[in-house]
Design a protein that fits this description.
The complex is a heterotrimer.
Chain A: H1 5-30, E1 34-45, H2 49-53, E2 60-70, E3 74-81, H3 82-92, H4 105-131, E4 135-137, E5 141-146, H5 147-150, E6 158-169, E7 172-183, H6 184-206
Antiparallel strand pairs in A: 1-6, 2-3, 2-4, 2-5, 3-7, 6-7
Helix pairs in contact in A: 1-4, 1-6
Chain B: H1 6-12, E1 16-21, E2 26-29, H2 31-37, H3 41-44, H4 49-52, H5 59-71, E3 75-77, H6 79-82, E4 103-111, E5 117-125, H7 127-146, H8 158-175, E6 179-186, H9 189-196, H10 198-214, E7 221-224, E8 229-235, H11 239-255, E9 268-275, H12 283-299, E10 305-307
Parallel strand pairs in B: 9-10
Antiparallel strand pairs in B: 1-2, 1-5, 3-4, 4-5, 6-8, 6-9, 7-8
Helix pairs in contact in B: 9-10
Chain C: E1 5-9, H1 13-21, E2 30-34, H2 37-47, E3 51-55, H3 63-72, E4 78-83, H4 88-96, E5 101-104, H5 109-122
Parallel strand pairs in C: 1-2, 1-3, 3-4, 4-5
The chains are: A alpha+beta, B alpha+beta, C alpha/beta.
C-alpha cells in the first residue's frame, strides 16, 4: 500500500515525535543520553514485512508486544535481533559479567519488556492522540523466537504499519522496528485520519 | 455468584495493591502494604506516594502514572531497571547483599461508574528471585574461574598448562620427541593500556591471541600465562621448527591490525626453549629458560625471537 | 514599514504546516519556511528574519549546527529550538549555542505564545 508523499511525511513526523518522547523517558530511566528516531515509515503486507524491516524469516528476534483494541485493533510489536537486544540490555542493566551459556534471561526479559513498553506506549499514544483515534493497549509481553513464528498468527488479510527504529544508548546503536499489524479496514481508516489531520491543519491555517 | 467480599480478597492477596486517582491521591491501600510499610489504609488515604515517602525519587512512577491515566496505557516498572517503588527494608536478606525489598510493579487503568479514571498499581515482591540470580551468577563465576580457561581470552590458563606439561614431558620421555616452549610477551603493553584505555587493551589481548593461534598447529596449546604474557607449548617440535613458527608469529603480529590499532602498532617478543628427553628437566626449568630468552629479546630491541640452546 | 519575519526550518512539511496551523491571532511575524541548511541560509540572507525556528533532528546537520552556521554568516536572529527531543543534553547544547527558547513538539498555540514572550524578553 502506497502512502502519498503528504501521508508519508505526516506519519514520519508523528512517529518521530513519539520516538523522541520515548527517548526522553528512557533517558531518565537509564540515566543516559538516548537517541531514538524513526528513519523510515511504510505500510506493507505481511508477506512484504521481512524485506521491509531487514529481518529474515529465519532470524532470531526478541519481541515486546501489546495487543491493541478500540478504533485500531491489532498488535503492536517492537522487534530486535536477539543478540543485539541482549547486548543492549546487558549494557543498560549494567551486567558487567557477561556469562556465555548462562543467560540471566528473566532479568533481561523484564528490563527489555519495560523498555519496549515505554517505546510502544509512548509512540502509539502520540499517534492516537494526534490523530484522534481512541485505542487501548493491553499489558506488554515479551517473547523470543524465529521471526517467522512470531508473525505466524498475522493473517494474510492484514496490513502492517512499519516504523523502523534507530536506537542509540551509550554509544551502542541498535536498529529495530515498531510494527503495528492491523486489519485492512483499520489501515484504510488510519490513512483517512491522516488525511483529515492534514486537512484540519490546512483549514486552521487558512482562517488567519 | 453471590456478591463477593472484594475488600476481603484485596486484603488477602500476596501482592501490594494500591489505587490512585487522577489527582494522584491514594484511594486504596491493601493489608499487604500496611503490613510491610507500617502505614495503614487510613493514614495513606488521600495522600500521594511522594507525601508518604518524601525524598524517594519517583519520576519513573510519575511518568508511568501519566501514561496510564492519560492514555490508559498499561505500564510496567521492572525490578531490573527500578529496583523498587515502595521503600521497604527487609533485614534478614542483608547477608545476601540486599537490604530493600526488590519489586516488580505493574500499572493499569481502571474506571469507576462515573467514568473517572484511576491507576491500579500492583507491587510484587521479587527479592528471592533477585537473590537467587545473584547466587547463580556468583556460582557461574566461580566455576569459570576454576575451570581451565582464562576468562578474557578463552585461552588455557596456568593451572591447565602445568597439568598438561607434566603429562607432555612424560610422553616426550616415553616416545623420545621434543617439546618446544615459546614464551611471548606483548611489547609496551602498559603504554597501550595507558594510552587507549583498558577496554582497548583487552581487545588487543584478544586480537593478539587470535593471531598467534593462526600460526599454531592443532596439537599446540596456547596459554595465557600472565597479564600480557603467553606461552605456546608445541609437542613433537624441534628447535628449528619452533624458531620458524616464532618468527612467523612475530611478523604476523607486526603486520596485523589488532583491536582498533593499525598494523605495526602492536609487536611482541618471544623467547624459546626446548625440552629434550636426552637432557631431562622439569617443566618449571623449561619455562624458566624460555623466560630468560624472552628477557633477552626485550633487551635487544623487542619485536624479535631469541631461541635457547636445545 | 517592512514586516518582521520568522523563518521556520524543518525537514518535515507536516511539522511546518502544524506550526502555521497553531499560530495565535495577530501573530507579529510573516512566516517563511525552509527544509534544509542551504535553503535556510538562502532565505535567511535574503529575508533577514528576526526569529529562526529550527528543528533539532534533521538529516545532515542538527538545528544547533545550522544556528551556528547562521551566526557565523552574520545572521543575527533569535534562535528557537523546535523539537520533541527535550532531553537535558539537547537543551544544554541549545542554551550553549545561544538559543532563547524551546518549543516542545507537538506544537500548540500556547507554546507559540510562550515563545513569543521569551523572544520579546530578549529585545
Amino acid at each position: 500500500m502506497q502512502l502519498t508523499p503528504a501521508q508519508h511525511d505526516a506519519l514520519s513526523e508523528i512517529a518521530n515525535i513519539g520516538a523522541s518522547r520515548s527517548a526522553k523517558q528512557l533517558s531518565m530511566l537509564l540515566d543516559d543520553e538516548i537517541h531514538l528516531s524513526v528513519p523510515e515509515v511504510a505500510i506493507v503486507s505481511v508477506a512484504e514485512l521481512p524485506g521491509a524491516i531487514g529481518v529474515a524469516v529465519t532470524d532470531d528476534v526478541a519481541c515486546v508486544y501489546q495487543d491493541m483494541s478500540g478504533c485500531l485493533t491489532g498488535k503492536a510489536r517492537l522487534i530486535f535481533h536477539t543478540h543485539e537486544s541482549r547486548m543492549l540490555v546487558q549494557m543498560l542493566v549494567g551486567s558487567v559479567h557477561v556469562l556465555s551459556g548462562i543467560s540471566m534471561q528473566i532479568y533481561e526479559h523484564e528490563a527489555m519488556k519495560e523498555l519496549g513498553n515505554i517505546i510502544i506506549s509512548v509512540c502509539i499514544s502520540t499517534m492516537t492522540d494526534m490523530l484522534g483515534k481512541e485505542t487501548r493497549l493491553a499489558i506488554p509481553m515479551y517473547c523470543e523466537g524465529v521471526f517467522e513464528e512470531i508473525i505466524e498468527e498475522d493473517s494474510g488479510n492484514a496490513g502492517v504499519l512499519v516504523m523502523k527504529t534507530a536506537l542509540t544508548a551509550g554509544r551502542r546503536g541498535i536498529s529495530g522496528a515498531l510494527i503495528v499489524t492491523l486489519s485492512l479496514p483499520d489501515i484504510i481508516d488510519l490513512l483517512k485520519s491522516l488525511d483529515n489531520f492534514l486537512a484540519g491543519c490546512a483549514d486552521q491555517q487558512e482562517t488567519k | 455468584m453471590t456478591a463477593l467480599p472484594y475488600q476481603e480478597i484485596i486484603n488477602h492477596l500476596p501482592v501490594g495493591v494500591l489505587v490512585v486517582d487522577e489527582m494522584r491521591k491514594i484511594c486504596c491501600w491493601n493489608a499487604w502494604l500496611a503490613d510491610y510499610t507500617s502505614i495503614d489504609g487510613k493514614e495513606a488515604a488521600g495522600r500521594t506516594l511522594e507525601e508518604l515517602f518524601p525524598g524517594h525519587d519517583n519520576s519513573r512512577f510519575a511518568f508511568a502514572l501519566e501514561q496510564v491515566l492519560k492514555s490508559k496505557s498499561p505500564q510496567i516498572m521492572s525490578q531490573a531497571l527500578n529496583r523498587y517503588l515502595i521503600p521497604i527494608r527487609i533485614p534478614n536478606m542483608e547477608r545476601h547483599g540486599v537490604s530493600m525489598m526488590q519489586q516488580t510493579v505493574t500499572l493499569e487503568h481502571l474506571a469507576d461508574d462515573g467514568g473517572r479514571g484511576y491507576a491500579l498499581v500492583s507491587i510484587m515482591n521479587v527479592t528471592e528471585n533477585v537473590v537467587r540470580s545473584a547466587a547463580l551468577t556468583e556460582l557461574a563465576h566461580k566455576l569459570q574461574h576454576d575451570s581451565n580457561r582464562d576468562h578474557l581470552t578463552m585461552l588455557y590458563n596456568r593451572r591447565f598448562m602445568w597439568e598438561w606439561l607434566v603429562q607432555q614431558i612424560k610422553q616426550s620421555n616415553r616416545h623420545d620427541h621434543q617439546v618446544a616452549c615459546l614464551m611471548l610477551d606483548l611489547d609496551n603493553f602498559k603504554s597501550i593500556n595507558d594510552r587507549y584505555g583498558h577496554k582497548e587493551g583487552d581487545a588487543v589481548l584478544r586480537g593478539f591471541a587470535g593471531i598467534v593461534d593462526e600460526h599454531l598447529r592443532k596439537s599446540d596449546i596456547l596459554v595465557r600465562y600472565g597479564g600480557e604474557e603467553f606461552v605456546v607449548l608445541m609437542p613433537q617440535c624441534d628447535i628449528e621448527a619452533a624458531i620458524a613458527a616464532a618468527w612467523r608469529t612475530v611478523r604476523g603480529v607486526r603486520e596485523a591490525a589488532i583491536g582498533s590499532l593499525a598494523p605495526g602498532q602492536v609487536t611482541c617478543s618471544i623467547g624459546i626453549s626446548v625440552y629434550d628427553p636426552g637432557n631431562p628437566r622439569t617443566g618449571e626449568e623449561l619455562l624458566k629458560e624460555a623466560d630468560k630468552r624472552l628477557y633477552e629479546a626485550k633487551n635487544s630491541g623487542k619485536d624479535q625471537v631469541v631461541p635457547g640452546s636445545a | 514599514m517592512q514586516q518582521k519575519t520568522i523563518l521556520v526550518v524543518d525537514d518535515s512539511a507536516t511539522s511546518r504546516l502544524l506550526f502555521r496551523a497553531h499560530l495565535p491571532g495577530n501573530f507579529p511575524y510573516v512566516v517563511h519556511e525552509a527544509d534544509n541548511l542551504d535553503g535556510a541560509m538562502e532565505e535567511a540572507v535574503s529575508v533577514r528574519p528576526e526569529v529562526v525556528v529550527l528543528d533539532y533532528n534533521m538529516p545532515g546537520q542538527s538545528g544547533v549546527e545550522i544556528a551556528r552556521a547562521m551566526l557565523k554568516a552574520g545572521i543575527n536572529a533569535r534562535f528557537v529550538l523546535f523539537t520533541a527531543n527535550t532531553q537535558k543534553f539537547v537543551l544544554d547544547e541549545a542554551a550553549e549555542a545561544g538559543f532563547v527558547a524551546v518549543i516542545e513538539k507537538p506544537v500548540t498555540r500556547e507554546k507559540i505564545n510562550d515563545m513569543l514572550e521569551k523572544v520579546s524578553q530578549c529585545n
